[in-house]
């Protein structure tokens, strides 16, 4: 499985679906990593390709990220009046009311709020006392430790200590990304959010591109014959296909747009 790029046949099959959902992660897929997370800009042309896809009849587009919704909007430049759905904070936030509603079942409870407050103060103490090189990000349902740009050994130690600390707080979900560890009390994940959107738009086929561990939830949930799941980069994965890097992902989206528009002209 996931031996290489999607075959032309698989892409054509998805492209010809009456209703297709194209969902993609942001960091490491649309945009290469940058030491400054706010400088991670998309590969030129990729957001335009997503806009072109979203303009085709029966094609629905979503950008999915661990980043909060506001940041995702700023980085992508996708505005609220465009037909592209944004899903942030690993599914806990979305510009789509349907996704928000579906994720409400996964909402944060008062008990979770207490856990989160304790977790925040413990992480603050950890960073202050032992890992001043790490940065803390606060989200509505999570606290995140960032070590991008920090020397490897120091970064690994900070992540390991934060992970250990999470064990003291039952019910906390640990999401390990690249140079980042998110400790979350949300019960949403990228997979449940994307499949909820797929149900809402009546998607027959779904395409999902992701590079990180948190994208595996989406890969594992998309196992219909016409689904095209694509891991970007190296590492073990539940995705069916793989491309090497961000330019590979951009090329794949362009190829998909060409096939989708051709299939719609032929109709
Ligand atoms: Mg990513």
Give a structural overview:
By secondary structure, this protein is of the alpha/beta class. 40% of the residues lie in helices and 20% in strands. The protein contains nine helices and eleven strands. The protein has a seven-stranded mixed β-sheet with strand order 4-3-2-1-9-10-11, with helices on both faces. The chain has a four-stranded antiparallel β-sheet with strand order 5-6-8-7, with helices on one face. The chain is globular, with a radius of gyration of 19 Å. The relative contact order is 0.20. The model has no long low-confidence stretch (mean pLDDT 94). Bound molecules: magnesium ion (MG). The site of magnesium ion has 6 residues, from loops.
**Overall residue-averaged pLDDT value:** 94
Strand segment tally: 11
* SSE order: HEHEHEEHHEEHEEHEHEEH
Proportion in helices: 25-40%
The CATH topology of the largest domain is given as: Rossmann fold
Provide the number of structural domains: 2
% residues in beta strands: 15-25%
Principal-axes geometry comes out as globular
Largest sheet: 7 strands, mixed
Which ranges are low-confidence, i.e. pLDDT below 50, for 5 or more consecutive residues? none
Strand order in the sheet with the most strands? 4-3-2-1-9-10-11
**CATH class descriptor of the largest domain:** Alpha Beta
> What bound compounds does this protein have?
magnesium ion
CATH superfamily of the largest domain: HAD superfamily/HAD-like
**What is the count of DSSP helices, taking H or I runs of 4+ residues?**
9
Name of the CATH architecture of the largest domain: 3-Layer(aba) Sandwich
User: What class do helices, strands and sheet pairing give?
Assistant: alpha/beta
Radius of gyration: 19 Å
